Amino acid sequence: MWEIEVLDALQNIHTPWLDKIMVAITSLGNAGILWIVMAAVLLIIPKTRKAGLCMAIALILDLLITNCLLKNLVARTRPYDVADFTDLIVKKPTDYSFPSGHTAASFAAVTALFMSRKKLLGAISCVIAILIAFSRMYLYVHFPTDIIGGIVVGVAAGVAAGFILRAIDK
């Protein structure tokens, strides 16, 4: 399976310091906490309130689509179980693998920022989102197609949130 080959190849770049960095990066996406906090901060500041609202709507849409619908519908086994990989350096996730929730939330937030015309914050957040997505494969908890699925769902949720806000404004 090509996806296991990709994940196995990533094991060749592991070092103790990179492991610590990847665990820290992936933890930014745990429960979408980074993006939830960012949305809350943006909601508090009057000048960025619409961007915060767009992020909040995108994150709610993503949660419903990813965690309430797709993960349970697809019910994909995690790669560490498929490949009998025992060298995990993070706690085993207990939910299904597809799509990556960390990735979906990250790209929902990033897309919402771009839809809100917050280009600089969106660009910085995009780098973080890409690192979070990569960390999920590095840590052997998601297949590459889980990441791709998470990006698609996240972007769709962010775009939908942008259109919802524009419709409300009219």
TrEMBL record:
Pfam families: PAP2 (PF01569). It is a multi-pass membrane protein. Its main location: membrane. This is Phosphatase PAP2 family protein. SMART domains: acidPPc. Residues 51-162 form the Phosphatidic acid phosphatase type 2/haloperoxidase domain. InterPro entries: PAP2/HPO, PAP2/HPO_sf. The chain crosses the membrane at residues 21-45, 51-70, 120-141, 147-168. Keywords: Cell membrane, Hydrolase, Membrane, Transmembrane, Transmembrane helix. It is found in: Cell membrane.
